[in-house]
UniProtKB/TrEMBL annotation:
Residues 217-232 form the CCHC-type domain. This is CCHC-type domain-containing protein. PANTHER family: DUF4283 DOMAIN-CONTAINING PROTEIN, GLYCINE-RICH CELL WALL STRUCTURAL PROTEIN 1.8-LIKE. Pfam families: DUF4283 (PF14111), zf-CCHC_4 (PF14392). Residues 274-305 are annotated as: Disordered. GO terms for molecular function: nucleic acid binding; zinc ion binding. Keywords: Metal-binding, Zinc, Zinc-finger. The keyword tRNA processing does not apply. It comes from the Eukaryota.
Length: 335
């Protein structure tokens, strides 16, 4: 008797290729169909992204789609297409929408991280990497006299991949903490501290706090699950303030929209873009300074100011809405 599967099963690309290698095609099946798509439609795949909920327990997808659509305020319609293994194609209507939303990551729903990357034509969905996600961090306990750009670049790259620097805290300068955006590997435990050694040999330990941190485990430090679902949680083991290596103290204090506006005063530098684009230019400017004084330095400062201002334009548009909606995400998600 012919066996039939009890349930529908998904099949991977590799399994399909193995299957096709065994088949002999008929004459009708061998007829080729020519695609007339020239691939130049900018409202097609070029503006898409691929996302995934990075959690062991997935929230309601339809509710997540509704919340993100209302929260993002895209210029054009955005659609979500669910795929296997929890992946989702996010079909933005234009490149500008996708760029803005990706720059505002991380995005959370129901305390779960929704990681996104740009869609790549011809790339297998299973080969996308969602393990790197940007977060705004605050680094506390750094001596004020040591707070400079060289140090923040070194600290950021020690934690992960430095993306941006916020040059001002609530008092108008770096005094309480350094604020930077870093792309971190969420497959590894969250970094808690940074050790800093001065030129004289003195060591200080800096504490890291994360803004808009999703659910994470207080036992292993990984994002995506809590202590009760941790594989390291042996039966009968308990966790408390005396033995917890991670905890709520790693979350940066939440601020309301008015406080947020006071804390951010056009002080953001997009480090990843600036360094990559101007790497060769900075070297030539250094040589130019030796010959012509401060002219090259002024030109570089002008470019930095332009980059900060461009960043401020799109950030100002959505930051108030994003912060206001933050408290209501869980409530709306369960609706």
């Amino acid at each position: 008797m012919e066996e039939r599967p009890n349930n529908d099963t998904t099949i991977s690309t590799d399994e399909i290729n193995v299957l096709l290698g065994k088949l002999k095609f008929s004459e009708e099946e061998s007829v080729q169909i020519m695609s007339t798509n020239d691939g130049k439609n900018v409202k097609g795949f070029e503006s898409w992204a691929v996302g995934k909920i990075m959690a062991t327990e997935h929230p309601n997808r339809e509710a997540m789609y509704r919340v993100f659509k209302s929260l993002w305020y895209t210029k054009e319609e955005v659609d979500f297409v669910a795929l296997k293994e929890g992946a989702v194609i996010v079909k933005f209507g234009c490149l500008e929408d996708r760029s803005r939303i990706l720059k505002l990551m991380p995005w959370l729903f129901d305390k779960c991280l929704f990681s996104m990357v740009p869609f790549v034509k011809g790339k297998n969905i299973a080969s996308y990497e969602f393990g790197l996600s940007p977060f705004w961090l605050r680094v506390y306990n750094i001596p004020i006299e040591l707070m400079d750009r060289q140090l923040v670049v070194a600290v950021g790259n020690a934690i992960g991949e430095l993306v941006a620097i916020d040059w001002k805290d609530r008092n108008g300068a770096w005094t309480e903490f350094m604020r930077l955006k870093v792309k971190i590997d969420i497959s590894k435990p969250l970094r808690r501290i940074v050790k800093l050694v001065s030129r004289y040999g003195g060591e200080t330990i800096e504490v890291i706090k994360y803004e808009r941190l999703p659910d994470f485990c207080y036992m292993c430090g990984l994002i995506g699950h809590t202590f009760k679902n941790c594989k390291d949680n042996r039966e009968g083991a308990g966790i408390n303030d005396s033995n917890a290596q991670y905890g709520s103290w790693m979350r940066a204090p939440f601020v309301n929209p008015n406080q947020e506006r006071n804390m951010r005063r056009n002080g953001v530098e997009i480090v990843k873009t600036t360094i990559t684009a101007n790497e060769d230019k900075e070297e030539s400017q250094t040589n130019s300074r030796d010959e012509s004084g401060q002219s090259a330095q002024k030109g570089n400062e002008k470019e930095v100011k332009k980059a900060r201002y461009r960043h401020h334009l799109w950030k100002k548009e959505v930051i108030s809405l994003y912060m206001t909606a933050w408290d209501g995400l869980s409530i709306r998600g369960s609706a």
